[in-house]
């Protein structure tokens, strides 16, 4: 039942985030098709964490040493 109740809601959530401002959402959605459930992953968790860490370094406050943001 999770797939039934979550499938359309995630598209509405994506549209809401695309329309966001102050701050604007800069993320991405990846959907597993055809018929992949909501627990589908485009990458493994290690790769996802590497992407998050890279984003954190890029988004570090101006003037900060980016090495301090290397998690």
Element layout with pairings:
Layout: H1 2-18, H2 45-58
How would you explain this protein's 3D organization?
The protein is mainly α and 71 residues long. It has 2 domains: 1-40, no CATH class; 43-71, no CATH class. Helices cover 44% and strands 0% of the residues. The protein is built from 2 helices and no strands. The protein has helices spanning 2-18, 45-58. The longest helix is centred in the N-terminal third of the chain and has 17 residues, at 2-18. The protein is flat, with a radius of gyration of 16 Å. The model has no long low-confidence stretch (mean pLDDT 81).
Entry summary:
The chain contains 2 helices and no strands. It has 71 residues and is mostly helical. The protein starts with a helix and ends in a 13-residue tail after the last helix.
């Amino acid at each position: 039942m999770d797939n039934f109740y979550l499938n359309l809601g995630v598209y509405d959530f994506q549209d809401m985030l695309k329309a966001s401002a102050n701050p604007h959402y800069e993320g991405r959605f990846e959907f597993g098709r055809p018929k992949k459930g909501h627990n589908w992953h485009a990458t493994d968790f290690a790769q996802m964490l590497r992407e998050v860490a890279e984003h954190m370094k890029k988004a570090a406050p101006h003037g900060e040493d980016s090495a301090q943001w290397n998690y």
